[in-house]
Amino acid sequence: MKDTSHHDARIAEMTFASVYPHYVTKVEKKGRTEEELLKVIEWLCGYQAEQVQELIEEKATFKAFFEAATLNPNASLIKGVICGYRVEEITNPLTQQVRYLDKLVDELAKGKKMEKVLRTI
Predict the structure, then answer these.
(1) Structural domain count of the chain
(2) Which of 51, 67, 100, 120 is buried deepest, with most CB atoms within 10 A?
(3) Does residue 76 form part of some domain?
(4) For the chain, how long is the longest CA-to-CA vector?
């Protein structure tokens, strides 16, 4: 599937605060916790829980969210399809990073072991 510039621009300007509650709802519906979600965000982006809260309060866009992040060097191990896109084939770096996060949240919600979600085994 090809990325479009319109799609990429829309993702860049979307606020993390507008999506985070959906992440929480998704994982909690499946018996996971917000703490586990925060652990996933910390692994991918390097943010502690307090920093995530600050970014939510600031209404940081995904562009700002990922510009300030320290992406995990193992992020490229995240593979698969999310939202109709194969994450390893996405050409726009920001869109790919957002989809990495979406994929990790999806795996967490699907009950994968944390070690597998965080690519430690």
Answers:
(1) 1
(2) 100
(3) yes
(4) 37
Query: Hey, how many other C-beta atoms are within 10 angstroms of the C-beta on 83?
Result: 11
Question: Is position 121 within any domain?
Answer: no
> Cα separation of 49 and 28, whole Å?
17
- pLDDT tens by residue, 99-116: 999 999 999 999 999 999
Q: Which of 112, 98, 118, 121 is nearest to 23 (CA)?
A: 98
Q: What is the mean pLDDT of residues 65-88?
A: 94
Q: Which residues pair with 15 in a beta bridge?
A: 61
Q: Domain of 90?
A: 5-116
Interval 24-65: pLDDT, tens: 999 999 999 999 999 999 999 999 999 999 999 999 999 999
Helices and strands per DSSP (H, E), number in the chain: 7, 2
Dihedral sign of CA atoms 69, 46, 82, 87 in order? positive
Of 66, 70, 51, 73, the C-alpha closest to 120 is 73
CATH number at residue 76: 1.10.8.290
